[in-house]
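USER: Note each token:
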Amino acid sequence: MTDAASAPAAAAPSPRAGDADFPVPAISVVVPMRNEGPNVAALLAEIAAALRGVPHESVCIDDGSADDTAARLLEAAAAAPPGARVRLLRHERSCGQSAAIVSGVRAARASWIATLDGDGQNDPADIPRLWARARAENAAGAAPATAANAALGAASAPIPVPALVSGWRTQRRDSWIKRRSSRVANAVRSRLLGDSTPDTGCGLKVFPRALFLELPAFDHMHRFLPALVIRAGGRVVSEPVNHRPRLRGASNYGTLDRLAVGLVDLVGVAWLQRRWRRPRVAEAAVPVAAPVQGPAQVPTQIPAHAPTHAPAHAPIGGDG
């Protein structure tokens, strides 16, 4: 596993040029793109339509494209409707899909993140449903009761457990070899990592930004987000989503490439899991001391028999 981004993850994004002209979005849609020029306009129009009436931003990361992806993104940003800001981040050279997602999430302004692929196969119309599920899961999520927590007292408060909602492409619109390799990879990964996620490779996911920033960043991490979230103490739920055939452009990440690096990364993530124990945390209720009634009583006179200071040279022992 190689490092996807060396910059430290910030707890909140820094103000950037133009931010003052836009309200803080309710959700940021992070879209990694590489040589996806033909898909830019249609995809961003679908995102704006799916989130109409919701202040949002599309954070698009041009991962070292050799085509007109950046130019198309600038055109889309200029034509974006009110409440649907489009932002463009550029990698000087291609660093991979995981690095693009990390760059996008770190730059995002919203506390909620949705990710989807830039090829148009994920359907933006599914974002509101996954976002609603994510908000419900995070509002209700809490660590299960345990004997250890009970020992803290009846008033102990369980720490909320953040959740990631992962899309599940129940009807994939890919080639036979891609579907078959993905099915095998999901089965092997689920068995070894125990993430209980039927389709971890789906690019459509919704999660709290703060949750993602706690995860280790490395190349190809996006394929292991469910396992990484569980390792960090979070929960993962899957939601069926629409999947569409690619209509424009060509895949930029080959099936054989994914399989080759996937085996190495699988071993690395399994090592990470075994090197960390997930504690169950509950905060104990601490009694609050009663406030002191009236001002503290401070002596105003020193008793006559009490010395006002220590002797300059006290004897060490006996009468000296």
Remarks:
- Residues 209 and 258 are 26 Å apart (CA to CA).
- Residues 5-12, 302-320 have pLDDT under 50 and may be disordered.
- The chain has one domain: 21-281.
